[in-house]
Design a protein that fits this description.
Blueprint: E1 2-5, H1 16-27, E2 37-40, H2 47-51, E3 57-63, E4 73-76, H3 81-84, H4 97-106, E5 113-119, H5 132-151
Parallel strand pairs: 1-2, 1-3, 3-5
Antiparallel strand pairs: 4-5
Helix pairs in contact: 1-5
């Protein structure tokens, strides 16, 4: 299983994915047999297509403006991305998740099981760290990913 973070760690809550990967890396030793592959794409959502594999399992973590209270966590499937994420096509990543998933599907690269975990940002500003509410959501996201990994053992 792959856990892929998309976002800018130097742009406030957009760095939630990187924070989640850091906690996952601290929980799972690098040589653990059940450790998922942890991938930080930074702001290159287009590179997501290269990391998706047909038949594989994947969790994508990103800050997503979904109209929820800041710090709220939502899980959804790729086909729901356009419905759940507001303004995703104009994201900080240049290419939104919905567009990346559409391209991957067109190229035959969609995994058989892909889960998106979005965290509603409170603040997206250059040079700032995670807001308190988004930082508080990180352990919840980590727990959801751990449950997803266990579900596939």
């Amino acid at each position: 299983m792959k856990v892929i973070a998309v976002g800018n760690a130097f742009c406030g809550d957009d760095g939630v994915g990187a924070a989640v990967l850091a906690q996952l890396g601290a929980i799972w030793p690098a040589d653990a047999a059940d450790r998922p592959e942890l991938i930080d794409l930074g702001t290159d959502a287009l590179a997501l297509v290269d990391h998706l594999e047909p038949g594989g399992r994947c969790v994508v973590v990103d800050a997503a403006q979904m109209g929820l209270p800041p710090g709220e966590v939502a899980m959804f499937r790729p086909e729901e991305a356009r419905l759940r994420i507001r303004g995703d096509g104009l994201s900080l990543h240049g290419l939104g998740l919905a567009e990346a998933f559409g391209l991957a599907a067109h190229l035959g690269r969609m995994p058989k099981d892909l889960l998106v975990i979005g965290v509603e940002p409170a603040r997206v500003a250059m040079g700032s760290g995670l807001s308190d509410v988004v930082a508080a959501a990180v352990p919840r996201v980590v727990g959801l990913i751990q449950a997803e990994v266990l579900r596939h053992e």
